[in-house]
Specification:
Largest sheet of chain A: none
Mean pLDDT of chain B: 77
Number of strands of chain A: 0
Number of helices of chain B: 7
CATH topology of the largest domain in chain A: Rna Polymerase Sigma Factor, Chain: A
Oligomer: heterodimer
Strand content of chain A: under 5%
Radius of gyration of chain A: 18 Å
Strand content of chain B: 5-15%
Largest sheet of chain B: 3 strands, antiparallel
Helix content of chain A: 55-70%
Shape of chain A: globular
Largest interface: A-B, 48 and 36 residues
Number of helices of chain A: 8
Shape of chain B: elongated
Low-confidence stretches of chain A: 95-99
CATH superfamily of the largest domain in chain A: RNA polymerase sigma factor, region 2, helix turn helix motif
Distance between the termini of chain B: 84 Å
Mean pLDDT of chain A: 86
Structural class of chain B: alpha+beta
Number of domains of chain A: 2
Low-confidence stretches of chain B: 161-176
CATH architecture of the largest domain in chain A: Orthogonal Bundle
Order of helices and strands of chain B: HHHHHHEEEH
Structural class of chain A: mainly alpha
Strand order of the largest sheet of chain B: 1-2-3
Radius of gyration of chain B: 42 Å
Chain lengths: 184, 176
């Protein structure tokens, strides 16, 4: 029978490393995606994701279950990302060949070449537009889009009210729409 | 603000499923009857779709084993003393503990201040002050007894000063 997150947390708090490893295996991909959405650089995102789980391990004894484990781990991830982003100097979405071994191969599906060019152009512009958002705006966009989180959960992770989440999302989307008006 | 502007501000929360009941219904019925707002809805949906595609396609699938090895290496690595100290301070001075620490510190300071007012080693000297109140040797003494919380104002004539002042009193006449 599969253990719940909370049962794994309790085992981790009691010093069971395998239980913590299981928690990492459940959330590492999602946490990495959220961090990449915020950091916009794979190498930095990988570093921050590993640091996030390392910090979670160190703090797991103080986690009392006031929120769900995923809210807690995302809170650590978002805070780490925002801190790291302020120091980040690398180009967005740089990719080092040496990191190939860390990622699974992605199967690209063949598409109509014209649509492919249009899509690529839109994606490139969207990527640029996301890069220009503030860390706070990026955070709400990424948590809502990747995770489909409710405003309440996003507010819990970012430490702000649902009203603030709603307002940040509105302005972030407006900025993206303004920058991509030629494509939308 | 026009009704369309108000509705377009609510489109995001409505599409996110955060507007329910009458508010959600108001947006739905307006969008159904307004071409501008329906177009705004279309643009927002396309934006969300593209955002989702961009954010999910640029993230490669991570292999778990090398990811975990690096996390494990960090866990097992010996951390420098200053990092351990910072971590200890952060866990010790966490917000709930500070909430108790602040009133406790105030109580301690108040306790120390009240203790400083007590005389060390014995009974308090209740004799507070003596002031001469006129030129005829009459003095006032203020005595306070902390136990019974009584203050005594004692008017008396200084016997030493009496002789000096008698002559002056005789010269100047009664003081009253």
């Amino acid at each position: 029978m599969e253990l719940s997150d909370w049962q794994l947390v309790e085992k981790s708090q009691a010093g069971d490393a395998d239980a913590f490893q299981e928690l990492v295996s459940r959330y590492h991909q999602k946490v990495f995606m959220v961090i990449l959405g915020l950091m916009r650089n794979r190498e930095d995102a990988l570093e921050v994701a590993q640091e996030t789980f390392f910090r979670a391990f160190r703090k797991i004894k103080s986690f009392q279950g006031g929120s769900s484990f995923y809210t807690w781990i995302y809170r650590i991830a978002v805070n780490n990302s925002i801190d790291a982003q302020r120091k980040q100097k690398r180009n967005p979405l740089d990719f080092h060949e040496s990191m190939d071994g860390l990622f699974e191969a992605r199967n690209e599906v063949a598409k109509d070449p014209f649509a492919d060019v249009q899509d690529r152009e839109l994606r490139e512009n969207m990527s640029k537009a996301i890069n220009e958002l503030t860390p706070e705006h990026k955070a709400v966009i990424v948590l809502r889009t990747i995770e489909g989180m409710s405003y309440k959960d996003i507010g819990e992770i970012l430490g702000c009210s649902e009203g603030t989440v709603m307002s940040r999302l509105h302005y972030a989307r407006k900025k993206l729409q303004d920058k991509l008006s030629a494509f939308l | 603000m026009s009704p369309c502007e108000t509705i377009q501000e609510s489109l995001g929360p409505w599409l996110d499923g955060e507007l329910r009941g009458a508010d959600g219904e108001a947006v739905r019925s307006h969008v159904a009857s307004c071409a501008d707002c329906a177009a705004a809805r279309g643009r927002l949906e396309k934006l969300q779709l593209t955002l989702g595609t961009v954010l999910s396609t640029e993230a490669p699938q991570l292999k778990f084993a090398p990811f975990w090895r690096e996390v494990e290496r960090r866990i097992e690595a010996k951390r420098p003393w200053h990092e351990q100290l910072i971590e200890w301070c952060q866990s010790t001075l966490s917000a709930p503990r500070l909430a108790w620490a602040v009133p406790a510190a105030i109580m301690l300071v108040l306790g120390l201040l009240s203790f400083a007012k007590w005389p060390v080693g014995g009974q308090a000297d209740n004799y507070a002050s003596v002031e001469s109140i006129d030129a005829h040797g009459r003095n006032v003494a203020l005595l306070r007894d902390d136990k019974t919380k009584t203050t005594i104002i004692w008017l008396y004539q200084n016997p030493e000063g009496e002789n000096e002042n008698v002559e002056e009193a005789a010269k100047s006449g009664p003081a009253f």
